[in-house]
Amino acid sequence: MKILLLGSNGQLGWELQRALASIGQLVAYSREECNVEDFETLRKLIEQVSPDIVVNATAYTAVDKAENDVDKAYLVNAEAVKVMAEACEQEGAWLVHYSTDYVFDGLKKSPYTESDIPNPLNIYGQSKLMGEEYIRKICSKHIIFRTSWVFSTRGRNFLKSIINKASEVDTLQIIDNQYGNPTSAELLADVTANVLNKLGVRNCDSTFSGLYHLCCDGYTSWYAYAHYLLHRSQELGITRTLPSLIPVTWQ
Ligand SMILES: NC(=O)c1ccc[n+]([C@@H]2O[C@H](COP(=O)([O-])OP(=O)(O)OC[C@H]3O[C@@H](n4cnc5c(N)ncnc54)[C@H](OP(=O)(O)O)[C@@H]3O)[C@@H](O)[C@H]2O)c1
Questions:
Q1: Which end of the chain is less congested by CB atoms within 10 angstroms, N or C?
Q2: pLDDT digits (tens, 9 = 90+) for 97-121
Q3: Ligand 1: which residue has its CA nearest to atom 24?
């Protein structure tokens, strides 16, 4: 089973390099080696490698910045994904892709399921939803994992920002009315490898194609998450100071 991984230097891409190496022949490309905004190179790469599976860990993930960088967000999160979907369909390859809880408006009072209607409120969410829609329309063999609040030891994430800020500030204002599931990149990568292994072993047709919500169990607010992180990192001796946390309401 030949696997082409794109975006190998991100939080998830890095873990996928580890997890996918054990289930097949892995060819991994970072942004430097394949910038997905260069559609021609991207298309040719998929044709040349001719993989059984393309795993797309690339994304424009700067949620706030995307509001002023609209074209770039759509380029990476939607238009490049369309090119991947077309090339995979042409090659008969599976396309594995990751999306986000930002496709929803957050108004539902219970956990979202795959059948809930998306209603993204920001550019990041809208561009990611468009990427999903291209895949579902164009590529008959696909798996889209929607996840949330990804963390890892690598790259930028809430966990690392909070721990870094602990030594810099006396108080931190954190939103206490937004909820999500912190999910490790390690878990996402291991589940992906497990699923792809089963697909490869069974030489599956498109029966298993679809959209799946994939995140850790339970839920928390940003405030409760920050509270836990600060106290735990102090207990473990990672941080010495404990800034006071002020809960604020997002409206
Ligand atoms: N992070 C979260 O909290 C979160 C939550 C829900 C869903 N997701 C989804 O989960 C997936 C993985 O996210 P992540 O946390 O691993 O993100 P990440 O750490 O920001 O990694 C994204 C990767 O994409 C690469 N990339 C960006 N633009 C590119 C381009 N034009 N060409 C090639 N590569 C490019 C980046 O390259 P550089 O390393 O050079 O920057 C980076 O390696 C994404 O689909 C994301 O939307 C993430």
A1: C
A2: 999 999 999 999 889 999 999 999 9
A3: 58
